[in-house]
Amino acid sequence: MADGPEVNEVAAALLVSMGLLRRRLRQVPVEGELTLPETSALSRLDRGGPTTASMLARIEQISPQSMGATLAALEARGLVGRRPDPEDGRRVVLSVTEAGREVLRNKRTARIEQLAQALSGGFTPSELEGLMVAAPLIERLAQSL
């Protein structure tokens, strides 16, 4: 990679730019806003399907107590439901309710609209194409962390 940028340069540039993007997206409130841990847990349940609180805590790399508090808040709002595990009645399986999916859809839609407005205001078609090419690479990078 002698002709291209150094790995540390790319890492530093991505850290700065993605951090700024994330902060700016968070500055505009979305109705029914969730905390970061609530969003993460709800999104994980939505993508990964029903699971136990302990498994979710392991996946999210937080303590079971923290996950329990997060899930209790989501359940109190009707965004997460519980049912006995069909394979082991002693365990409880959590899943996203339709209300939880609606909150996630609303949040995603609001953020997409926010980004679309910014993109339509000052990016050329070739720049938009470049961002479209970069998106799966950024996703792959996130999954490798």
Automatic annotation (TrEMBL):
Q: Would I find rRNA processing among this entry's keywords?
A: no
Q: Where is the HTH marR-type domain?
A: 7-140
Its protein name is: MarR family transcriptional regulator
Which parts pass through the membrane?
none
In alphabetical order, the GO MF annotations are: DNA binding; DNA-binding transcription factor activity
Q: Which organism is it from?
A: Actinoallomurus bryophytorum
SMART domains associated with the record: HTH_MARR
- UniProt KW keywords: DNA-binding, Transcription, Transcription regulation
Q: Which domain of life is it from?
A: Bacteria
Check the record and name the InterPro entries matching this protein: HTH-type_Bedaq_tolerance, HTH_MarR-typ, Tscrpt_reg_MarR-type_CS, WH-like_DNA-bd_sf, WH_DNA-bd_sf
Q: Does the keyword Transcription regulation apply?
A: yes
